[in-house]
Amino acid sequence: MTERLAAVPPMGWNSWNTLYDDYNEETVKQMADVMVEEGYLDCGYRYLILDDCWAERERDENGCLVPSHEKFPDGLEPVIEYVHNKGLRFGIYGCCGVKTCAGYPGSFEHEKQDAEAFAAWGVDYLKYDNCYRPTAQKADMLYRRMSYALRNSGRDIVLAACQWGREEVERWIRSTGAHTYRSTIDIRDNWESVKSIADKRILHLEEGGPCCHNDMDMLVVGMNGGGSNPETTAEGCSLAEYQTHFALWALLDSPLIMGCDIRKIDDDSRNILQNRDLIAINQDPEARTCYMLSCECSPGTFALVRPLSDGSLAAGVFNFSEENMKAGFTFWDLGISAAAGQKLRFRDCLTHEDMGVLTESCCIRLDPHECKVFRMWNAG
Asked: Full-prediction pTM beyond 0.85?
C-alpha cells in the first residue's frame, strides 16, 4: 500500500516569521544544516519551507515563475537538491490570487503551469495563500484547481491551504484535496494571539482528521519578541505560555511548523520544540481529534482529551485565566469506571516522568496560562 501523503500533520520550519523577505541561498542551506545537526529532523521536522518573496516580481516571456536572481543566482534546483541531500523535504509558497500577499506573481490561471514547475524543481510542499483573489472567484474552486494540478504534476506535493478560516472553510476544504488548511488569521508572537487561535480551534473540534489537518499557523516558540516580520513580531510570550502554545498545537492535530530562528534558539525553547512525548501525540497515526471537558468550578480552565492508536489517552489540562487555579478531570468523564476497578497509569509529558497509577480523578494546580499534559494507559 502506498504511504498516504500527510496522513499525520506535517512538521517543519518556515521562513516567514523570522526572516520575512531577507533570505537567500546561503540562508536556506544554514537552516537545513541546523535542522539536521541540532536534532530537529530526528524529531520529525522534515519540511524546510520558503514563504513569500522568493520569486522575481514578474513572470518571464513564457508566463513562467522565475526565482529571484539576487537570492538564488543559480535558480532553486541546486538549493532544493542540497535540502534533499540532507534528508529533508522542500516547501515553497504560492497564492491562489493574481498576486501573492507581498505582491509577487500569484498562480491564478497559471495553476497547471506552476504545479509542473514546482514538480520539476523537486518541491514537496506548497503553502497556498488567499491574497488578491478576484472577487468573482470562490475559494473552494481555486483550491480545487491547484489541488488537481499538483496531483497530476508527477510528484507528491502537500497542499497547505492558507485560507485564514474564511467562508466556513471547515465545511468544504477536505473535498478540495488540500492536506492542511488554515483556520484563523496569522499568528503573532504574544499570548493574546495564541489564546485567540486556540479558542477558535476549540469551536471546531469535530473538524480535521487524517490527510486534511486543521492548521493553527506557525509556532512562535523561541521567537522571544524577535523576528524581522512586522506583521507577526510582538512582545513575545513567557516560557510557560510557549509551553502551553506547543501543547495545544500538538494535542489539536495542527501541523508543527517552527517559525523562530533555529540558528539562535535558546535551550528552553529547543526543549519545548523537541519534546518527543508531545510530538508522538501529534503524530499519532489515527490523527483523531480531541474532546473538551470544562472545569466549571475553576473558570478559564479546561481539559482536552484525545484517544490514541495504542489504546492510551492523551489529556492536556489548561488554565487560560489570570488566576492560579485548581483544574483536572474525573475518570468517569473519560468513559472509565472507577467503581469497576479501572485504573490509569500516568506519564507527565512535560517532565517525561512516570507518575504511577491513579484512580477516579486527576486534579492539579496551575498558574495563569500554564498547562500539564499526560499520557495515560489502562492499568486494570
From this structure: yes
